[in-house]
Amino acid sequence: MIGISTACLYPLETENALDRLLQLGFRRFEVFLNSFSELEKPYLQTQKRILDGCGAAVRSIHPFTSGFESFLLFSDYIRRFHDGEEFYKRYFEAAAELGASIVVLHGQKKVSKSLTEEQYFERYEKLYQLGRRYHITLAQENVNLYRSESPDFIRRMRCQLGESCAFVLDIKQSFRAGSDPFVMAEAMADRLVHVHLNDRDGQEDCLLPGRGSVPYQYFFNQLQQMGYSGDYIIEVYRKNFNKLSELVEAACFLKSFSCISG
């Protein structure tokens, strides 16, 4: 199913971004939680009531601490990892409150390789199992300049952890890392649970779907052959379009492919 991320309207406040996107007709979301107050139960319950009233659903949430995960979760200071575990429980709780099933993880930056791969995988697995207690899947995203930018790293992670891992494929992050998103998808294989969509041309690496040269029919066919049945989330930045109506046009473009529903 085609959805959209509230990040497309950042820095508009999250609840206002959701409201605008609901007005545009979107009904499947990734929600970027952008501050501590947005983790509070009353705030989340209010958003859930609004979403339910519109027949809408949140598929995933994205932590505002993603850029600090090297420091919080993947440093060689073990106490900070344990404290980070306690804090990330709030994201799992928030996801459960919103009815989401996925929390997105960036992980460790390449310049911060204080942990071996084995240690990284061990830390991730602990967080993954913690999420499962809340019926939430912690999904490693491929991110440029992070260890996860490499298909080989992702492939080793999948082989090491098996069913104790999951992945988010982000097209623009693959291109920015100089890798092929199709190769990345193959590395994630049957543990791929979520996809972020954008487009690119010879000048720009983050355009709305339909505005560039990404071969979407081939892309969708490849993922379908892999058995992928999750959502496709439009995720660009506010500077990448002018009018909100362009978001609707992008969604219509994606829905035009016969293998995509709703």
The chain-level structural class is alpha/beta
Q: Total strand count, please? A: 8
Cα radius of gyration in angstroms: 18 Å
What's the order of the H and E elements?
A: EHEHEHHEHEHEHHEHEH
The strand line-up of the biggest sheet is 1-2-3-4-5-6-7-8
Low-confidence stretches: none
| Mean pLDDT value | 96
Write the layout of secondary structure elements.
Blueprint: E1 2-5, H1 14-23, E2 28-32, H2 41-53, E3 57-62, H3 69-72, H4 78-98, E4 102-105, H5 117-133, E5 137-141, H6 151-161, E6 167-170, H7 171-176, H8 181-188, E7 192-197, H9 216-226, E8 232-234, H10 245-255
Structural summary, described in words:
- By secondary structure, the chain is α/β, with parallel strands linked by helices.
- The protein contains ten helices and eight strands.
- The protein has an eight-stranded parallel β-barrel, surrounded by six helices.
- Strand 1 (2-5), helix 1 (14-23) and strand 2 (28-32) form a beta-alpha-beta unit.
- It is globular.
- The mean pLDDT is 96.
Keywords for this entry:
eight-stranded parallel beta barrel, 262 residues, 8 strands, alpha/beta, globular, 10 helices, single chain
Question: What is shown here, in short?
Answer:
The chain has helices spanning 14-23, 41-53, 69-72, 78-98, 117-133, 151-161, 171-176, 181-188, 216-226, 245-255, and strands at 2-5, 28-32, 57-62, 102-105, 137-141, 167-170, 192-197, 232-234.
